[in-house]
Amino acid sequence: MKADRLLSILLLLQTRGRVPAHELADRLEVSVRTIYRDVEALSASGVPVYAERGRHGGIELLAGFRTDVTGLTADESRALFILAAQGAHAALGLDAALGSALRKVMAALPAPYRPAAEVTSRRILVDATRWKGGPQPAVDLDVLQDAVFADRRLRLRYRHSGAKEPSNYTVDPYGLVSKAGVWYLVADRRARPRLFRADRVHSATLLPDPVKRRPGVELADAWKELRRQVEERPGGLDVTVRVRRSRLDMFLRLNASSLAELPDDEGENEWVTVRLSYGFVREARQLLQFADALEVVSPPEARAEVAAAAASVTELYQRVGEGRS
């Protein structure tokens, strides 16, 4: 609707200052000509807006002009109060700021919308952490945040999964991402995107050099590329197993990081079906520790891998026995 678009232009200009007409057109998915017509409509309604053409031109509000209109619809006001669990805000040191911001938003809402927004905040909660994931280690995000907001390079001492000692990296940060309760630093190293788990960063040093990001690449772009690499990583393996109910809790705790989904645990059958996801077939060998309470259903290569691991253990015990006799 044109009224919504006019309000969006007004709020964008109020927030951003001077904005090129083509950028407004891209954001609102209309033509540049439509943007100029909307600017004329705003000006005719009394809004002190003007356009400057040329290389450094753009559309801008008269200095000092502000509007207190929020422009929020009923659904938009409810959406603001559907928030993720407090963990992400607390990790960034913003939990108190979040509460303050929501109080201000509530005060600015049109009176008819306030009851619905308040009820929404009490009835809907989004918790991004996984079930039975175990306690997450404390993560110090201060230096990482400083680098992200100051556009500075970082020197990291970072320990990869399975490595005994950390490695040194100089990286160009794009930003921080919280994925299922785990914080990641998204950064370029030698002009290629890399993902660093914040809880594996042993130390981080802010460098005086300005960040060197790839032109035109934003955090969302880099994250999309990295996420695709992880999700489409070759060698991935989906494994289905059946676990005795008496050992299910222990199995879920020890395999939380490999769970593809939570099992349907509402029945009373002795066996519960669980689906796991491994990066490589050899990782299925860890299932051997539940050999007396677990059956590998599929795929065949996972069954073969667990059987091979069991055979290796049997052979080892036989050798030990022969050595003692």
Give the structure's gist in a few sentences.
This protein has 325 residues and is an alpha+beta fold. It has helices spanning 2-16, 21-28, 32-44, 74-80, 87-91, 95-108, 114-123, 142-150, 219-231, 248-254, 300-324; strands at 49-52, 58-61, 152-158, 167-179, 182-189, 192-197, 201-210, 237-244, 271-278, 294-298.
Strand content: 15-25%
Compute the separation of the termini in Å. Answer: 88 Å
Mean pLDDT: 81
Rg over alpha carbons: 27 Å
Task: Tell me the major beta sheet.
Answer: 5 strands, antiparallel
User: What's the total helix number?
Assistant: 11
Structural class: alpha+beta
Count of β-strands: 10
- Sequence stretches where pLDDT stays below 50 over 5 or more residues: none
Percentage of residues in helical conformation: 25-40%
Describe the global form. elongated
Biggest sheet strand order reads 6-5-4-3-7
Note the run of SSEs as H and E: HHHEEHHHHHEEEEEHEHEEH
Kindly describe this structure.
There is one protein chain. Helix content is 39%, strand content 22%. The protein has helices at residues 2-16, 21-28, 32-44, 74-80, 87-91, 95-108, 114-123, 142-150, 219-231, 248-254, 300-324; strands spanning 49-52, 58-61, 152-158, 167-179, 182-189, 192-197, 201-210, 237-244, 271-278, 294-298. A five-stranded antiparallel β-sheet has the order 6-5-4-3-7, sandwiched between helices. The chain has a three-stranded antiparallel β-sheet with strand order 9-8-10, covered by helices on one side. A two-stranded antiparallel sheet has the order 1-2. Strand 5 and strand 6 form a beta hairpin. Helix 2 (21-28) crosses helix 3 and helix 4 (74-80) packs parallel to helix 7. The longest helix is centred in the last third of the chain and has 25 residues, at 300-324. The mean pLDDT is 81.
